[in-house]
Amino acid sequence: MCSLAEKDRPIVQLLLDAGTCPRCVLRFCCVGSQLLYRHPQQDLMKDLQEFLKSSQEKEDPVCLDVADPPCKRIRLDHNREEGADDLTHNGAVPQLPSAGSGNTATESSAGKVCNVCLGILQEFCEADFVKKVCQKVNSADYQFTSFVFSVSLPPQLSVRERAAWLGVKQQMRNLGLPLAKDDIVQLKEAYKWIIHPQLSEELGVPADGKSLFEVSVVFAHPETDEECHFLATACPDCFKPAKNKQSVFTRMAVIKALEKIKEEDFLKHFPCPPSSPKNLCDALEIQCNNGAVFVAGRYNKYSRNLPQTPWIIDGERKLESSVEELISEHLMAEFKADSFNFSSSGREDVDVRTLGNGRPFAMELVNPRRIRFTAEEMKRLQQAINDSSDKIQVRDLQLVTRSAIGRMKEGEEEKTKTYSALIWTDKAIQREDIAFLDDIKELRLEQKTPLRVLHRRPLAVRCRLIHTMSCEYLDQHHFRLRLKTQAGTYIKEFVHGDFGRTKPNIGSLLNRTADILELDVESVDVDWPPTLAD
Question: Which of 5, 66, 298, 313 could form a disulfide with 358 if both were Cys (CB 3.0 to 4.6 A apart)?
C-alpha cells in the first residue's frame, strides 16, 4: 500500500497514539504518492496497523512505490535543524511511547477527529461531501468546461502542524534515531489529490489549474480559533490590523510568526503533539466564481439629454438613464453576471451626440453564469439593445479578451477625433471673416483644466493640437466648424475660451465673443474593436 521504511515506524507510532489520522501520518512520513491518499481511510488505518506489527528487522520498504508527479512541500522546521531543547509546553522532557507498542497504536486515532488536520482529510474527503459541493455547483447554473479547486484553511492548522512536527523531532531524538530533513506534504496538496478526481467525475469536466471557473471551500474551526493568539504576544510585529481583514490572525500572518518564534518559546505555549479536538471543521462556504467575460463594440448616441454614465450628484439622480445602463441592462441579463465595469475610448458630455462609426466601448461582466455565445447570438443581443431605445445604437458587438481592451485605452490620448460644432458669434460675420480658419494647420493650444470639470480633474495646463479646421457659413451669427483634433482636446473651451483658460480660442482668433450651441463627435479614430460583417 504505502512506501514506508523502518525509519518511519516511530513517527507512525507517535502520531497514531496522539490522535493523528492516517493521511496526515503519510504526510509527516513525506509519502508523495497521490494514489495512496485516495484509499479509504479505514484501509489506510489497517495498513498502518500491519506496518507497526511487521518485523522491525526488515529494513526494506514494506509496500510498493507508486509513480506520481512531484508534490509541493511545506517546511515546518524553520528555526533549527537539530539540537533544540527537548521541552513540552510545560518544560518537561516528553514521555513518548516506543516504536514497539504497535498493538495499541490505532486505538486513540480510530473514530476521532484528527489532531492535525481537524477532520479535513477525514470526513471532507468522503463522497457525501463531494456530492454536497457538486450540488452547490450545479444549482448555481454556471457554464464551464473545466474547474480549479481552491480551499481556505483555518490559520490554526499551521500551528498544529508545527506542534506535531516538533513532537516527531523530539521522539526521534529520544530514540537516538536520525531524522531526515525532508519537508512534509502540504495539507492543501494532499486534500486536492484526494478530492480532484471525485469532483471531476461528479461534474464531468477535468480539473485544470488555469481554468477560469473556480470552486472554493472555506473551512473554519471555532473550537480552536484562539490557538493562534499566543503568537501575537511572541511576535507582535506579524499581526497588524488591515482594513479589509476581519481578524489579524490571517494564515500568512500566522506562518510569518511561526517562522520567527523560537522553538522553546513555542513549546512553552502549545502542547506537543497537539491534543485532539472534539469537533470537526465546519465548511462555512462553498462558492463558485467564473472569470470575467469581456464584451466590446461601438455605440452611437443620438440624444442631447443622455449622459454616458449615470449622472448622480449628492445621491440624487439627475437623468433617468445613461448609455452605460442602456447597454448593460441587456448584457447583464444574457450573461447572468453579478456586476459589470464599463469603459470607453473617451467620453462625451451629456449634450453631445456621437455619430459616424461610433465610440469604442468595453464591458467587463463579473462572475457570469453564461460565457458561451455564438456569433449569431451576439447579433441578436446587439439587435435587442438597438430595439430597446432610440437614444443609442450599438454595432460590432463581440466577445474580446482582457488584453485586447488595452488597444482601446491607447486611443484615448494617442488617436485623433473629428468633431462638428455649431458656433454663434455676438458680432455679425461674413464668409471672408472665417475663411482663414480653413488654412490653419497644427494649431497648438494651452488648456487649463476647464472650470466645469475642475471639481473632478486636477488643475493642470495641457498642450493639445488642432490638426485641421473647415468652416461652413450659415448666417451672420452662425457657422459650422469641423475639426480634427488630438484626443483629449476640450472642444467647447476651444470655442468660447473658458474665460481665457484656453489660448488661443475661436473667440480670440475672430476677435469677438463666440460660443458653442451644438457639438457632435463625428469619428473616434481608434481601429478597435474589429468591424464585423452585417
Answer: 298
